[in-house]
Amino acid sequence: MNIYLLSSPESTYGSAWYVDKEVIGQTIRCSVNPNHIHGGKRQSDLSILLTARIIKSFIWTWYSDCILPEETYQWFLDMKFTGFTVRPVKARMKKNPPEPVIIPPLWELVLTGWGGIAPENSGIKLDEYCPYCKSVSYTGFHNPTTLFDEKQWDGSDIFMIWPLPNYIFVTERVAETIIKKKMTGCRVIPLKDVRTADSLGPGLLSYYMTEERIRELNLPDDFRENLV
Ligand SMILES: [Zn+2]
Question: Cα of 196 to ligand 1 centre, how many Å?
Answer without folding.
Answer: 27
